[in-house]
What we know:
Shape: globular
Bound molecules: zinc ion
CATH superfamily: Ribonuclease Z/Hydroxyacylglutathione hydrolase-like
Strand order of the largest sheet: 1-2-3-4-5-6-7
Number of helices: 10
Amino acid sequence: MHSEIKKVEFPNLSIITIPATQDNFMYLIVDKTSGEATVVDPVEPQRVLQVVNQEQVTLKSVLTTHHHWDHAGGNQKLVDLSVNENGNRLEVYGGDTRIEALTKPVAQGDIIQKPAVFTGDTLFIAGCGRFFEGTPPQMYDALITKLSSLPDDTLVFCGHEYTVSNLKFALSVEPDNQDVVNKLTWAENQRAGKKPTVPSTIAEEKRINPFMRVNLPSLQQRVGASDSINCMGTEEYCLTVPVRHFMSPVFLLNFILGGTI
Ligand SMILES: [Zn+2]
């Protein structure tokens, strides 16, 4: 496992971070009142079910951030493994018909409640996905227009552990940003102990994430951009981002969860 399992407690629910593949995260969200649970991006179904058993909760549904195999590829197997004696099947929520085993399509903006957002490959801690399936204006819309307008205390649970390399890029474009320096030291310590760096918050991302800071004239100047969207599209931003994954802003789907699901 690339990281330890980590549990974040809220008054009515807990969110358990479960590592998968080389650097993916799955999340089990438990409603403490009902003992029911939902899993986000269960690419490794067996590992999810182990945690479900350990926690003695009842898995009811799957939330899928996007259709890529490392997020949606475990859906069908999990549904098959989870059919109970009554033949009840898990509901699979997602925003794209290409998502495996989808039963409940949802649209952008189907916000349930704060305090958490599951960003898949769109927003990472201190970074974002590559633009292979989208354009700088789409990324601007996703990161600045939509995600930045969430409440500051919204927790950010992203799809991969890329924080340290993202912060090194952040430091290259904003060498004087003390928040980035501090977060990098913290993240390196976390990773040395195999601890995950999720979650962050929207407020923190606004301080450390160069993709959420493209409105800053100083940052635009440094990468030779004329405006915010142009900044997202500069070679420095697009080609040197040390992220090995895609983003898919067209299929961006944010699940914001409250006490009940
Ligand atoms: Zn991914």
